[in-house]
Amino acid sequence: MKSQLVRIEGTPAGGETVAITVNGRVFGHVARKRESATSIAQQLAEQINTGSRGGGAKISAGPTGDAGGIAITSMVGWDVAISATCDDPSLKVSVMPQP
To answer: Do the beta carbons of residue 80 and residue 4 sit within 8 Å?
Structure first.
């Protein structure tokens, strides 16, 4: 997939980690108590954008129109392997292909 969507839903209890792995590189955020899904998504998107600049990865991450959504896209047409995890049962994290 050249573009995928990560959705974060729910309200964290606090102290748990939400992680997105992009092409084998892990980007994590420790959620604060009652932090919004949108805030978590923004923090992770910033990390992905900053961390993918080196090594020629050319990956872009940005918010979608939905709260808690992150669109992750290859800027050079390469496939992007993405997985997402969360150790907080009050949060749901999913990955979906983008059209």
So the answer is: yes
